[in-house]
C-alpha cells in the first residue's frame, strides 16, 4: 500500500522540436488516418491529449486526429465512419480495430449555456488550438514529418509543469464551466501546478460548476478519485472552492475536508470510485449519503456499494472479534476487496497494525469458499408449509436461522426445524397469532 502522496514520474522530454521518439504501436491507426488524409491533399495531425502524454513519456489513452477536411470529406475518404458530433465536426473512423476520433479544425462560436458553443466554424490548426482548454492540451504532432506544432506555448508549460488556460483564463472558464473540473483533474493527474492567473480565475468561477450537468461532474469526479493522485485532486478541489458545487446542496465542514484528505492519502493506488467516494462522506447519515449519490446521478450499484461500505467500514477493525456469520456475510459481498482496503487504512492508525493485518488474513483464509454462502437449511417454503402468515416474521426467523447456520452452530435440517419451532413459539408469545386461518 502506498502511503506517500502519489506523483507521476516522466521520461525525459525530447529537447529538439522535431519529435524523435518512436510512436507506440497503439498510434498506428491514427497515423494511418493522417497518412491517408495527407495523401488526399489535406492537412492532418495528431492532436490534444495524446500529444501531451507522448511528450511526457506517458501512455496516451487514445489518439485523436485533427484535420482541415470537413466531415463529409472524411466520410468519403474512409470506408467505415460514424458521425458522432457532425455539428462540431467530429467523425469516428474505424481503423486497426478501433474507432478513432477525427475532428475538423474548428473554432467555437459563442457559448450561450456555459457548456457548448452555439455554433462552430471550420478553420485552420492555429485557430483550432486556440479553442482548446489548456496549453498542454493544445498541441499537435505531425507524425509524418515528426514535428511538434505548438501555437499556444504548451511545450514550455509542460516543461514548467503548469496547467494554464489558453487565452484569457476568466473568459475560458466563463464559456465552459466543465473546464473548472478539468483543470483540477489534469493538475492532479500530471502532478502539475495550476498557473496563478488560471488559478485565480478558477476560484472566481467556482460556483459556476453548479450549472454543469451532474452526470458530467460525476464523471470528472470518478476520473479524479480513481486515479492514484486522488488526494491531490481533492486538495485542489478544496483550495479552488469547488467542493461546495460538486452536487446540489453539497456541504463540507472543515473537519470533513481534512479527514477526507487524510483517508484518501492512505488508500492503495488502485481503488474503485465507490470506495474513494465513501471515505469522503463516511460521517454522513445513510439518508444523506443516498441523497448525495442521487444528486450526483450515481448508478444504483454505485449507490448501494457506497452505502454498504459506509455501513460496514468498522466491521473488520478487530478481525478476531467479528463473528463467523458476520465475516461470511462480508465475504459474500462483491465489494469486500474495497472494504478490506478501507479496513487496512484504519489499521494504519492502530498500534498493532501488522498484527491486525495478519489476523484478518488468517480469518479470511480460514473460511472455505463453499462455506461462505451455503444453501439455507430452512427456507420460506418451510414457514409457509407450517401455515405461517406472510409478514415480518419470515425475515426475522430466516435471518436468525441463517446466522446460526453461518456460525456453524446449526448444522442439520432437523435441528434447524426444531429451532424454527422455538422461534415461532416465542414470536407468537410476543406478537400474537401467526398462523393462517
Ligand atoms: P484524457 O487522457 O483524459 O482523455 P484528453 O486531453 O485527451 O485527456 P479529452 O477530454 O479526451 O481529454 O479531450 C481531448 C482534447 O479536446 C483535449 O486535449 C482538449 O484539447 C480538447 N478539449 C476537451 N474538452 C474540452 C473543453 N471542455 N474545452 C476545450 N477543449 C477541450
Ligand atoms: Mg482523450
Protein architecture, described:
It is elongated and about 85 Å long. It starts with 27 loop residues before the first helix and ends in a 6-residue tail after the last helix. Helix 6 packs parallel to helix 8. The chain has 4 domains: 1-160, 2-Layer Sandwich (Beta Polymerase, domain 2); 162-280, cca-adding enzyme, domain 2 (Orthogonal Bundle); 314-372, no CATH class; 380-431, no CATH class. By secondary structure, it is α+β, with helices and mostly antiparallel strands. 49% of the residues lie in helices and 10% in strands. Magnesium ion (MG) is lined by residues 49, 61-62. The site of adenosine-5'-triphosphate has 11 residues, from helix 7.
Enumerate how many helices there are, as a single number.
21
Distance between the ends: 61 Å
Approximate helicity band: 40-55%
Task: Report the strand count.
Answer: 11
- The neighbouring-strand order within the major sheet is 3-4-5-2-1-8-9
Ligands, deduplicated: adenosine-5'-triphosphate, magnesium ion
Q: Beta-sheet strand percentage?
A: 5-15%
Number of domains: 4
Query: Which CATH class of the largest domain is shown?
Result: Alpha Beta
Low-confidence stretches: 1-16
CATH-assigned fold name of the largest domain = Beta Polymerase, domain 2
Q: Compute the CA-based radius of gyration.
A: 28 Å
Overall 3D geometry? elongated
- Gross CATH architecture of the largest domain: 2-Layer Sandwich
CATH homolog superfamily of the largest domain: Beta Polymerase, domain 2
Mean pLDDT over the full residue set: 93
What structural category arises from helix and sheet content?
A: alpha+beta
